[in-house]
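I keep forgetting this: the sequence line spells out the residues, with the fold written below as integer tokens. I include a record here:
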Amino acid sequence: MASSTIYDIIVSQGGVAGAERLGRSKYLKKLLKEQKESGRIYGGICSSPVILQKHGLLKDKIATAHPSAVNKLTGQVTDRADIVIDGNLITCKGLETVIEFSMAIIHKLFGHGRARSLAEGIVFEYEVK
């Protein structure tokens, strides 16, 4: 049964306890799978990419995670990049990179001009990577 709600993006939050709790949610699992299958943006920050992997959402994708969680990921994983965008998947290491992560999401949804404009408004030097 499909969800009656369509989201432009779904991003799982980090924190080990929070990610573990989210990993047990059948509803979130369903939403994330629908998100991926429909070609909409999904992602995770900090330790939550581990739950994306658990649900098969990192298959054939490159991702990153918090240094304490990246070793729990298998496949095409990088610990060198703060943020990884692979198609409609966006992952990031954690709190230190949250503004850059936000700008990457804005860029993905609304384009480079909007991301640059918002970055200037918060005095953040944004460069597309």
